Amino acid sequence: MAPVRIINPSYPLDKKSDETGIFKFPTIPNNPFTMFRNWYEDHKTENHIATNAFCLSTATKEGKVSSRNLILRRLDDDGFVLMTDNRSKKAREMRENPQVAASFLWVKLVENGLIHARQVRMEGAVEELPYDNWKELYEAEPLFCKIRSHVCHQGTPVEWDALKEHHDKLLQGWKEGVEQLNKPDHVVCYKIFPSMIEFYESKGPRIADRVMYLKEAKSGWSNQRIAA
């Protein structure tokens, strides 16, 4: 099979290949959460499909890494909240090795068909939150998500017909008012407390700008521009 050539999408193909430049952040705030909130708001859509999705990487205590995409459930002033099944692989790995990495990627077309790309990546500790801290998140879940939390043992083998039967039974019970779909014990939320947050931004045929924030034990956050 012939290899597939990957085209760099940063600029239109009819542009001259010798166009270049270096992007620069307009401002670099002292607190990385200020910068993240600004970017998050910039990329919000009505359905939030592309805004609150992020990749979470976990590892076993032996260092075997796995990654998957999740939805950011809540952005706090000190961390990022995610919801999961406590019986899942990622939850097991977070319990035995509570250090994770995560990344957000936002890409859109801007003027002249150029690509505007932003990436935020982070590393830090993760902790399970008490239910009182995030009760409103489960209550706000859509119906299918609440049913899923009752019928799906995340990551385990399943027979489709049995799953469908269980789903339909719960749905009918909910319609009749006999099934409240209260939160199962295995539905939990974790918060990522970053010790490092890095921002990367580029527009068209320009070298990206990049800044890394590090959490200092006593003085809060420090930042340093780094090469792309």
Largest sheet: 9 strands, antiparallel
Low-confidence stretches: none
Radius of gyration: 21 Å
> What is the overall number of helices?
5
Q: Rough shape?
A: globular
| Content-based structural category | alpha+beta
How confident overall, as mean pLDDT? 91
Number of strands: 9
Cα-to-Cα separation, first versus last residue: 33 Å
Work out the oligomeric state of the chains in this entry: single chain
Question: Which range does the strand content fall in?
Answer: 25-35%
What is the chain-wise order of helices and strands? Answer: HEEEEHEEHHHEEE
Helix content: 10-25%
Features:
single chain, 228 residues, alpha+beta, 5 helices, 24% helix, Pyridox_Oxase, oxidoreductase, Pyridox_Oxase_N, flavoprotein
Structural write-up:
Belongs to the pyridoxamine 5'-phosphate oxidase family. Its EC number is 1.4.3.5. With 228 residues, the protein is α+β, with helices and mostly antiparallel strands. It is built from 5 helices and 9 strands, in the order αββββαββαααβββ. Strands 1, 2, 3, 4, 5, 6, 7, 8 and 9 form a 9-stranded antiparallel sheet that branches. Helices cover 24% and strands 34% of the residues. The longest helix is centred in the C-terminal third of the chain and has 17 residues, at 160-176. It is globular. The two termini are 33 Å apart.
